[in-house]
C-alpha cells in the first residue's frame, strides 16, 4: 500500500493491490483524500469487503451498515435505525463475530425480548426487521455466507392493534382544556385536516391558499438529535392539496394575525411534537377523557369522514395514502359492509322492477 501527498493540492493519493476471489491481481488507485488517515480508513474498509466478514464483530458490521445507509435514506429513517441498533441490538450482539451468530442465538434474543422487554408487538417486529437488514448487508458486501435470521424467523407483529380516536364531542371537551393558543390551533388543525404532525409542523403561511380555502402539504418537520430537519413527506402521494372548511381557515387566520413579527415563510407552529403531545395528554386528563396519541387525531379525522359517507378513494386522497387499498387495510372495520350494501341495492332494484310490472 502506498499513500502519497500532492504538494500542490494538499490531497493524498492511495494505491494498493489485492486479489479477487478468482486470484486475479488488481491495482486500484484512489485520490482526493484530505487526510492520510482517511486514505488508510478507505483501504481498511475496502480490504474488509474483499476479504469477507471473517474477523468482523457485529458492532463493526453495524458501523459499516450505518455509514452506508446514512447516504441513502432520510435523516429521520437513519436516526430510527441508529436508535434501534444502539438500544436493542448492540447490547446483545456487540462483540460477537458476525460469522458466529447462529439462528439459535437470535431465537434466544427474540424469546427474551418478547417475554421481558415490555415492548409492543409492532416495535418488536421493527427490531427484527432491522436485525435482518444488517445480516443481509453483511451477506451482500462482507462475505457472510447466509443470513442466520432467516431460519430464526420473525418476532412481534407487523399490524398494529385497533387505533383509538375521538368523536367530535370528545375532541371539543379536550380542546377546551388546552390553554396555549399555538397548541390549541395546531391540535384543532390536526383534527380537522387529517395531517400528520410532522406535516403540520412544517407548514408556513405561504402554504395556505385563501382563494381556494386549501393548504399544500409538501414538507415534513422533524427534530433529530437536537437538530431541526425539513424534508419531503412520508411518500410521494403524501404531497397533496387539502381543501379546508371555512371555519378552519378562519381559525388559522385569527391565530396568524396574533403572531408578532411573523414572516409568511416561517414555520406557523413553532413547537416540538413531544411538548404538544404532553400538553394534549394533560388536557385530556383535565377533561376526563381517555388519552390518545397526537397521530390518533389523524385517525379521528378519517373516522369522521367515513361516518359522513366518504369513499375509501376520497379518504385515501385526503390523508395522502398510496392507494385506497392502504386506507381499507387501516380502516376496514369502520367502513360499512360493502356486501350488505350491494345486496340492499340489488333488492331495491328488483322491487322497482316488480312494481313496474304491476302498473
UniProtKB/TrEMBL annotation:
Q: Which Pfam families match?
A: Arm-DNA-bind_4, Phage_int_SAM_3, Phage_integrase
**Alphabetical list of CDD domains matching this protein:** INT_ICEBs1_C_like
Report domain Core-binding (CB) positions: 56-139
Q: Name one GO molecular function term.
A: DNA binding
- Give GO terms for biological process: DNA integration; DNA recombination
Q: Please indicate if the UniProt record lists Transmembrane as a keyword.
A: no
Which family is it part of?
Belongs to the 'phage' integrase family.
> Which residues are in the Tyr recombinase domain?
161-344
Keyword presence, DNA-binding: yes
Name of the molecule in the record: Site-specific integrase
Name the species this protein comes from.
Pseudoramibacter porci
Keywords of the record, alphabetical order, are: DNA integration, DNA recombination, DNA-binding
Q: What does this protein do?
A: Site-specific tyrosine recombinase, which acts by catalyzing the cutting and rejoining of the recombining DNA molecules.
